[in-house]
Amino acid sequence: MPAITKETIVHKPSVSPNIPVVTLPKLRKIALAQQGLIKTNPYGTGLTAVESCIAQIGYVQIDTISVVERAHHHVLWSRVNDYSAEHLATLVASKKVFEYWFHAAAFLPIQDFRFALPRMNAIKAGEKHWFENIDKKLVRNVYKRIETEGPLRARDFADTRKQNTGWWDWKPAKQALEKLFMQGDLMVVAREGFQKRYDLTTRVLPSSVDTRTPNISEQAKYLVDTTIRAHGFAGVRSFSYLRKGKELRVAIKQYLDQSVEDGLHTIIQTPACDQFYIEAKLLDKKLRASRRVRFLSPFDNLVIQRERGRQVFNFDYQIECYVPAPKRLYGYFCLPILYADNLVGRIDCKAHRKTNVLQVLFLQHEIESDEFIKALVKELTAFMKFNQCESIAIERTSSAKLRGRLKKLLNAA
User: Fold this and answer.
1) Residue 62 and residue 351: Cα distance in Å, rounded?
2) pLDDT of 262-318, one tens digit each?
3) What does the alpha-carbon distance between residue 240 and residue 221 come to, in Å, rounded to a whole number?
4) Which of these, 230, 316, 237, 218, lies nearest to 276 by C-alpha position?
């Protein structure tokens, strides 16, 4: 095991004496480095950087909310400065990444396809339900049309409903498409706007991809290895995040116990006694965070597990679009603000694409240094351009003084 230095360890008599205590600043830097957020362009630029980024962080969550640029584009832009939506579309078309489910809808590296098979097989077998009362004949007919005609979208099928009760009320053919997709018979080969185009998996999946269904031990290893690679360290509950099943949790714990015995991972704790598994060699890394500001998506891999955010960043965060308006503290779609190696505030933005204005509805911050304000203005300007806007309108900040300073600096930019 690599040596653990004095810089890394703080011994506290109140914590478990046999488990080393690692400072939160050290853990934050490790987490940010593994997430590609500690320095500018850690993966390089362009298409290869986007592919490398997805491979490193394991998945990119897809979301439909478009108050600002959608989550999957936002996550990648935060790590690859010259990212554009065409990069992701190209990776899908070239079969380097695919759409399926991680803990939610996501883009994943194509080499991870086999680890989606347990869910696909369970849905096909009826163990997991996805439109369980769907017309089986319709499902067969939809599959046959794609087999015969090639890739199709939901809009290429007639709507047989007498009444549409809302955006969530998919027409029968759309339900059939999603059923076939979730059980692995179809894959998404392109998106046109937010419309998916589906084709047969047998025609899409490269022959080089491993299609052996993993056993429970292999699935556990995949989840642990992916999480550790993406985050550097994790608590035992993080590895099965939003996944059900005692058998999987037991297999994860068995793999962790064995990996600790083999020296692959070690157990550490924070001064608050939160315990994590970590790849031991990461503790020896000398890391320094660039002093820049980033606005993160609410679905960013760094913050999606809210408990981890509280433990490591002392940041109590929730996305407030699901909170009743009178109870919101920071705004409908407030974004976490990352500065250097910590989360220091929230910003609620709305991109008005018809008028090309990025509206800052509310900015909550914990730092007011000149260095932070200048970095904040730089990120606001970059975020404005990323959202295809041409100007910024600042409505409200947690400090009236900050609002004036920001407007002055933006006007001078």
Assistant:
1) 19
2) 999 999 999 999 999 999 899 998 999 889 999 999 999 999 999 999 999 999 999
3) 11
4) 237
Cα–Cα distance between 12 and 271 in angstroms, integer?
7
How is residue 272 written in tokens?
Answer: 């608050």
Q: Taking a C-beta distance cutoff of 8 angstroms, is the pair 52, 36 a contact?
A: no
Report the distance separating Cα 409 and Cα 413, nearest Å.
6
**Domain region containing 390:** 318-412
State the total domains in the chain.
2
Confidence of residue 324 (pLDDT cuts 50, 70, 90): very high
The dihedral built from the CA positions of residue 328, 329, 334 and 335, taken in this order, carries a sign that is negative
CATH number at residue 193: 1.10.10
- Whether 164 has a pLDDT exceeding 60, the answer reads no
How high is the pLDDT of residue 269?
A: 96
CA proximity to 87, closest of 55, 46, 42, 45: 46
- State which of 203, 226, 250 marks the end of a domain: 203
Taking only the tens place, the pLDDT of each residue in 354-374 is 999 999 999 998 888 999 999
Domain boundary among 203, 223, 242: 203
Cα angle for residues 45, 48, 49 (degrees, 5° grid): 45
